[in-house]
Amino acid sequence: MSDILFKDLNKEQIECLKQTEGVIRVMAGAGTGKTRALTYRFAYLLSSLGIAPRAILALTFTNRAAGEMKERIASLCGNNIACNIMTFHGYCAHFLKLYGSRVNFESNFAIIDRNDSKEILDNIYSYLSVNGRDITQRQMLDFIALQKSGLDYISYLKDKSALEIRQMADGLDDLKLKIYYYYLSAQRQSISLDFDDLINFTVFILKSDAALASDISRALEYIMVDEFQDVDGSQYELLKILCHYHNNLFVVGDPDQSIYAFRGSDPKIMLTMQTDFASLQTLYLLNNYRTQSLILDAAYALIAHNASDLRKKLKACRKKTDIKELVTTHESFIKALNHDTDDDRQVLDTLSLNAIAKDELKAADKGDIKDKKTILACVKNDRQEALYISHVIKSILKEQGDVSIGVLCRAHMQIRELERAFIENKIAYKVSSTVRYTDRKEIRDIIAYLRLMLNGNDDTAFVRVINSPRRGFGKSRMQRLRELSQKHNMSLFNTLRALAQMQLECAADDNRLITKAVGAFILASYKCSDLLSLSPIQALDTLLSVFDYEKKLRDSGDVDRLESLSLLRQMAIAFAKGAQERVNIADFLSSLMLSSDKTVQCSTELMTVHNAKGLEFDYVFIAGVNEGLFPSRKALSAEQVQEERRLFYVAMTRARRQLFLVQPGGFFANSERRRASRFIGDIGQDLLQKIGLDISIDDNMQKPASSQGCAFEPGDKVFSDVLGAGVIENINDKDCEYVIFFERLGRSRTLSFMAPLKKLEEP
To answer: What are the residue boundaries of the UvrD-like helicase C-terminal domain, all occurrences included (predicted)?
Structure first.
C-alpha cells in the first residue's frame, strides 16, 4: 500500500508520511499540496502501519475541508472506515455531549452563532434601555469575547442559575459588565453555548479532570491539524492536552496565510512551538503546483517584508504557462476610456467591437501585450476600474473558454460597482459571501422553533418565533410578559404557558396576552413535546405541520423559502443516513449549527479576499489596490499591517495563469485622494507590468524605509499641510507611529506612518 501512496507524492510529501512519531511542524506554502500530504499521511497510518481508525484524530477549521479529507481517504482506503476527521468545534461539541455532565453541565445544550448572540443583545439592550450608539453590538461582542478569554466565567454557566447571574448583574455600575452578565444569564437560561464556549468548556473539563484527560490522551495516538496557522490560544491549549500522553502531533500550515486575527488566530503559535515541544521537527513543502513563476516571485517579494526566520522561497512547479493561455493587458481600453467624458458605456460598446478577440500582433500594434508578469492596471476611478475588469473578463471568456476567474475585493463596499459593470456587460457571475445557509430567515426561524421545543427556557428562541409568523404579540405585550417572567422566575415561554392555563397570580388584564393566535401557538407546542423520540425528518415534519409554518409560506407564494425548507428536509434525511448510530433532532440541530456551506464554483466569482481563502482561479483580479483600502485604513499597528500584507499575499497566490492588480485614482467617499497601496512598493517595479494612466503612485513605488512604511529618522524635519513644520522626535516601529514636535502648535503630536508628510531639506 505504501508504494501506491508514494507514487502520487513528491519527496517532501513522502517525508511527511514517513515521519510518524513525535511533534512535527510542516511549513507548507500556498499551493504546495499540504492537504494532500495530511490526507495521505492519515491513509498511511491506517493502511501501512495498521493503526486503528479510532486512535487517529484529524482536526480542521471548516466542514468543507473535513468532508474533502474524508472523501479522499475513502477513495484511498475504502468507504467502510469510520475516520475521526472533524472541525475543532465539532470535536468539542461531541466531547461535551459525552462528558459535560462531569462538571454538572447539561448535555442538551444548544449551540448559538454570532447572529444568535446579536439577538440576545437586542433583547438585553431593549430591557436595559441601552443606546446602541453608546455601545455598539460589535464592541459588546468583542468585550464578551475578551471576558471569555479566561475560563473563570464557566463557573457561572455551570454552577449558578440565570436568576442569580442576573441579580449579580443588577448590582453592577459598569454598563458593559452589566450587559456581559445579562448575556451569561441569557445563555444559562437557554442552556446555550457559543463557539468560544465549546472550546473553553472542553479545556476546562480536561484541566479539571486529570483522569479523563489521561484517558482521552491515551486513546488518541496520532493527532493531525490542518491550517494550523489559524489556531487561537484556547485551541492550542486543547491540542497540548490531547497529545500529552503519546506526544504525536502533526501540524500543517503557513504562517504567511494567517488572516483571521479578528477571530483570535495567532501565527506566532506556529512559529514558536519549540517553546512547548523541545523535540519539535520542522519539515517544509516548497513545491508550488498552482501559480506560474513570475506571479509567485511577485508574491514572495511582497511577503518578504514580513520578517520570518522560518520562511523559505517556494519553487514554481506548475507546467509552464503558454502565451496562448494569457490575455492581452488591454491598455488601449483604459486610454480610450479617458477620451470619453460623458458616456463610459458607449466607449465600452464601441471597443467591444474593435478590441476583443484581436490577435496578438494587432494587440501589440495598439500597445497591448501578453505578459506573464503581474499586471498593474492604473485607471481613473472606481467606475473605470469596474469597466476595465469586465472588459478583460469578456476577452478571457471569449478567447479561453471554460476557465475560472476570481475578482477579489478587500471590502464588501467595492462589490456594488463591479456588479453594475458585470450586469451591463452581460457577464454571468456569482457573488460568494459569508452568508451561510443557516443565516436565511426561514432556516433561523425553524432552528429557533426547534430550540424552544427542546428547551422551554430558551428566551432568545421564544422572542424570535412568537411573531414568526405574525401573532400580534407587540412590544407592550412582550414587556408585560417579561415583568411576569421576572416576578415568577420563569422563562418567557413557560410564563406564557402558565398564564394560558390560569396557573399564575396576575392582573385581570394580563389575559390580553393570550390572543387567539397565541393560544393556537401554545396548543401547537404541546404536540411537539416528544420530538426527541422521533427521527430528525419526522421531528422536522411534525414541527412544520403543527405550527403551520410551511402552510404560511405556501400561502404567501414564497418559492425561494419553500425551496430552503425542502433542502433542510434533504439535509435531515442525509444526516440520519450518514450517522453510525441512532440520532435525533437535537443531534441534527447541533450538526446544522456547526456546518458551513460548500463553495459552488462559477466561471466568474466576485468575493472578498477572506472568502477566497482555500480557492484558486486561472485568472485573478485584485480590485482597489489603494492605501486606506488595501491595506485597510484601520490597520495602524505593525501587527495589523503585517496581517494586511498576509491577506494581500493570499489574494495573489489564488492565481494560476495571470494576475491583475487594479488601482483606481480619484477620491474616496470622504474626499480623501486615492493613493497607491504600499504593497505595490513592496513588490517592486521590476516584477510588475504597469499599464494605463500615469496616476500619482511614484512615491509608493519606492520601497519604504521599513516593512511598516517608516520613511523618516529621528531628527528629520518634516512638513504637514495641516500642522505645518515639525521635527521627528521619536519613532515607534511597533505601532507604526511618529512623535513629532510641531512649531506652530508648540507641542508634540503622534502621527501614524500613513500620515501625508514631506521631508524638508536642510538649507
So the answer is: 293-614
The per-residue pLDDT for 224 is 96
pTM for the structure as a whole: 0.76
Residues 438-566: name the CATH superfamily: PCRA; domain 4 (1.10.486.10)
- When computed from its CA atoms, the radius of gyration of the chain, rounded to whole angstroms, is 29
Q: 345: alpha, beta or left, given left = phi > 0 and alpha = psi -120 to 50?
A: alpha
CA-wise closest residue to 588 among 578, 599, 601, 597 = 578
Instruction: Cite the annotated binding site by residue number.
Output: 28-35
Distance CA 188, CA 191 (A): 5
Per-residue model confidence as pLDDT tens digits over 515-539: 888 899 999 999 998 999 999 999 9
CATH of segment(s) 1-97+202-285: 3.40.50.300
Taking each helix axis from N to C terminus, what angle separates 559-578 and 585-593, rounded to the nearest 10 degrees? 110
Homologous superfamily in CATH for domain 324-435+601-695: P-loop containing nucleotide triphosphate hydrolases (3.40.50.300)
Q: Could you tell me which residues are annotated as the binding site for ATP? A: 28-35
Percentages helix, strand, coil for the chain, rounded to the nearest 5? 50, 15, 35
Strands 405-409 and 604-608: parallel
The answer, yes or no, to whether residue 721 has pLDDT greater than 80, is: no
628 pairs with which residues across the strands?
632
Q: Tell me which of 601 and 625 has the higher pLDDT.
A: 625
Length of the chain: 763
Residue of 152, 251, 253, 239 whose CA lies nearest to 204: 152
Q: Which residues lie closer than 8 Å to 373 by C-beta, 6 or more apart?
A: 294, 298, 687, 688, 689
| pLDDT at residue 344 tops 60 | no
What 8-state DSSP symbol labels residue 257?
G
Q: Hey, which residues does 121 pair with through a beta bridge?
A: none
Measured at the CA of 389, the angle between CA 387 and CA 391, to 5 degrees, comes to: 65
Helices (H), 222-285: 233-242, 268-271
Q: 522: closest CA among 465, 480, 479?
A: 465
Question: CB burial class (10 A; 0-12, 13-18, 19+) of residue 31?
Answer: buried
Q: Residues 707-728: what's their mean pLDDT? A: 79
Q: Peptide bond preceding 255: is omega within 30 degrees of 0, i.e. cis?
A: no
Which pLDDT score, from 0 to 100, does residue 409 have? 94
Identify the residue with better confidence: 200 or 762. Answer: 200
Q: Going along 153-220, which residue ranges are E strands?
A: 192-193
Per-residue pLDDT reduced to its tens digit, 93-114: 999 999 998 888 888 899 998 8
